[in-house]
Amino acid sequence: MTVSYLKKATKTAETDEGKTQEIVLNMLNDIRANGEEAVKKYAEKLDKWTGNFIVKQEEIDKAAGMLNEQTKKDIQFAYEQIYEFAVQQRKSMLEFETELYPGVIAGQRLIPVNAAGCYVPGGRFAHAASALMSIATARAAGVPFVVACSPSHQGAGIHPSILYAMAVAKPDVILTLGGVQAIAAMTFGIFTGKPADIIVGPGNKFVAEAKRILFGEVGIDVFAGPSEILVIADETADPEIVAFDLVGQAEHGYDSPAILITTSETLAKKVMELMPKVIEDLPEPDVSRASWGDYGEVILVSDREEAVRVNDEYAPEHLEILAADLDWWLKTLTNYGSLFLGEETTVAYGDKTSGPNHILPTKKAARYSGGLNAGKFIKTLTYQRLTREANRQIGPVSARISRLEGMEGHARTSDIRMKKFFPGETFDLTGA
């Protein structure tokens, strides 16, 4: 088997990470030390926002009044798909109790975190769908307190479509706040008095770095990087659809990888021929042109098994299959954030409307993690309860293993119970 790069990326997602980390760390230290005062300073400097941070109902009503009815219906429809999928995810998770050994009862409880922070990015696009993905999923998981943040749009408050979508998903508090300062505010409970237990939602490299640095102090959904798409296509694929789907994701940012793996050299060459035309036909082609030029790849493989192997090394955020025998691909592939099977499906559907979450692992994190789902907000907690009689078996074994490990204090917690529960009886507590 052979792998041939007809187009190879010239840059990687690690470019300029060191400088980003320095900037973010300094901001977080400032906010940790100076709290609300520092947050307001960064909001004014970076987002030109000096108004109220907690959004009031009249602002939501005003945003709704700026949208036409079709837009509001579309947002409601997308919300219903996303919320229902998350509800079904939650239902698939089960509590249980089992008797592992006579008298040894163990179980599992599923308890939502107490507070979740949902970040909705601003920037070049009005990310209404991102508001639904994070907030609706937290609500479906049963989180009792949800705070949502999004930056001011050109100094005029949260973009109306984003604000309306946020409100549809029903968070407890909406903050006009973006960037590192938003992540810090939710983590530390600034403005709400309730520090978040987990922070979720996509964002730029500064937001991603803030989440990475704060991880441990607060939970996060995924370690996020630039959005990615990988398409696996064979000779049955439509090269025009392949090109459009690659370009559709390349517009996310200057550093968004768009990768094609194919078993057909004819298809590969046709897609490469089409890409510049599809890009230049966009109203604003600069971003897609740069990301395809610097991060785009076309990889020719000998068969579908080789395509799977190469894909699983990339572990892409979005994986499209435009090839025959879709069930085989579904059964065989293991590394991806979300999978899109057949030309009737496209990443953009998943990004906006169809239901499964679009907040997904990037930078090969799909090797060990899935995307945002109801389970991300749920703590899987265990408990156990023993009868006195069960101590006859569990106690001596625990004592012997503890002493095997050199942990005498552990062993004696078993010893004391054997002495109390079974006076006058003798047990082998040492294994000697």
Overall description:
By secondary structure, the chain is of the alpha/beta class. It has three domains: 205 residues, Nitrogenase molybdenum iron protein domain (Rossmann fold), CATH 3.40.50.1980; 146 residues, Rossmann fold, CATH 3.40.50.1980; 45 residues, no CATH class. The strands form three sheets. It has a six-stranded mixed beta sheet with strand order 1-11-10-9-12-13, with helices on both faces. α3 packs parallel to α4 and α6 runs parallel beside α7. The longest helix is centred in the first third of the chain and has 31 residues. The protein is globular.
In short:
With 432 residues, the chain is α/β, with parallel strands linked by helices. It has helices spanning 17-47, 57-65, 69-92, 128-141, 160-169, 179-188, 205-214, 239-250, 265-280, 286-295, 304-314, 326-332, 347-352, 391-404, 408-421; strands spanning 3-7, 96-101, 104-112, 115-119, 145-150, 173-176, 198-200, 219-220, 229-233, 258-262, 297-301, 318-322, 338-341, 378-386. Strand 4 (115-119), helix 4 and strand 5 (145-150) form a beta-alpha-beta unit.
